[in-house]
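== Polypeptide entry ==
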Amino acid sequence: MTKTITIRTEVYEKLIRIKKENESFSELFERLAEILVPIDALLKLRGSMEFNNKDKMLDEILSKRSEVRQ
C-alpha cells in the first residue's frame, strides 16, 4: 500500500540533501522515524524521576561538558 503526501518545496529540498544515493523516500522516512524512537521513549520517561539535589546534578553536568569541550 502507498500513500501520497504533500510537503512544502523547502522541506522537499532539505529531504533531498539528507537522502542517501539510491535511497527511496520511503527508506529515508523509515530511517528518520527510527532515529525518533529513542527520543520518544525518553520523552515518556520525563517527569518519572526525582532528584534530591538538582543544583548539584546540573553543576556536575556543566562541569563534564566543559571538560569534554577543552
Observations:
- Helices lie at 9-18, 25-45, 54-69.
- The first helix runs from residue 9 to 18.
- The radius of gyration is 19 Å.
- DSSP finds three helices and no strands in the chain.
